[in-house]
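Researcher: Hi, I'm a grad student and pretty new to this. My advisor asked me to get structures for two proteins we've been looking at. I'm not sure of the right format, so I'll just paste the first sequence and hope you can take it from there.
Model: That works fine. Here's the first sequence with its structure tokens right after it:
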Amino acid sequence: MKKNASSKILLSLGVATLLYSGAFAAEITFNGDSDLDKYFDINEKDNVATFKNENYKNKQDVTFNFSGAAFDDIPGDPKIYIDLGNNSLTLKNNTISGGETAVLPKNFNVDAKDFTTTDIGLSYFNTGIINANLTMVGSGEDFDLSDINKNKASSLLIFNGAEENSNDTANGSLTVNGDFSAKNSAIVSMKSDIFKVNGTATIEKSGLGFLSQSYSNLDANDFIVLRAKDIKTDKLNEDTNAGALILKTASSYIDESLLNGDDYGTSLDVTDEDNAFGGAFVDYKLSLKNCGGDKCLVINGGATAAAKKLTNQIAVDIEAITRIIDGLDNEQAKEALEKQKAELEKLKQEAISNGGKIDDEKYVDLVNKNLNLNLSANDKVSILVLRSI
């Protein structure tokens, strides 16, 4: 009897310990960038922000609750380091609908047992390493990528390459040393084979795609959007299961000197046939392939006739400029963008009244004037050829 009683006491103590540790998981709320100094050591010289983990590592799980913008506007896009040891990290988007609800943390590097995000838009502009099982979940089945900078959604965007008409270059990549799971999420890369999972990747009700800065760079030839040791997905049963985003920044349209370092980018989904830009810009197919002992999700396909129509491209430009103006604080830059938007709208109306025809050279001269590119006649011809005009 005493032995059984002791066992019951030990069992009760074990349950109590589990309840105790679960009850005291840390909840940290971020209302804006000003909260970062409370919880992170920021090294401006090395461009690194490290989580103050003394009270958390190997002691308790941590949840970051976002009720406003945080991390996404830190100057210089520093690397974020969070080390919780054997404990887990969760990111939750608690923004209230009615305004901008996107939460877009950049360059998160995590050491933890599990790393879970809900309605979070992760993005990487430099090398990212997650030593944890990564789970991404979107709360809505119909996630909206048409304005990812504002809308609450679960996404992973990896940027890699020179920024259009700018001196800035992104070298983003992501390696997950663990398993990866995505549900109601989007996974989009600018360059092939820069997202690797050293475990099993499970993709459910999610979109995979290609991020391009140019209408002339929409062809995808064995573009590896995800590499893993094993892949489980429901995406291969759909007719259209891969898409494209067009990335445009303020420096795509106006001289960088007007921005004073305050550039702003937006991504536009050009995949749907019923979009506002004149039809689907791409026809992509997704396939599962063996690649070097791993499994890879690969995109193949190219641009459609709609992508090569200049009036459709101008429609994208006008929408992109509208969003960029809304996102910028720089009045000088906004004024220059408003002027270019008005000229583009005028060009579009001229094309409509001329049965779809447009003065191609006039369009290139407009871009040249605003970007101060000093293009030669040969340069102009090259641009028109690249844009398939």
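Researcher: Oh nice, that was easy. Here's the second one.
Model: And its structure:
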Amino acid sequence: MIFDGDHHEIDQYLHAVVDEIQRSMQLTMIANDKANSAIQIAMAKLEDEFQNILIAHTSPIETNSLVDPSLYMIDERNRRRERGAVVMEIGVSLYMIDTHREAMNGL
């Protein structure tokens, strides 16, 4: 067995094993960094290509086709009603203030 020999030889052998493990780990880290860089480059190229495909197959859209004119009319009617309600509230408030003043003046 290996441990039956000279301690100096065993020490050299173990140092050689440790050195080999460290070299392997460094090579693995370098390979991993290169793989990550390659993946990042590939992703950027795919993104550019996807944008080019989208641009090439895009057609202009008329804004009239996006909105139903009847919805616009309904929205405009609602706005008018809301404005009318606000005016009515203001009118009622002013009437109440005037009525209160008259009552106070009558005292």
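Researcher: Is there anything I should tell my advisor about the second?
Model: You could mention this: The two ends are 121 Å apart (CA to CA).
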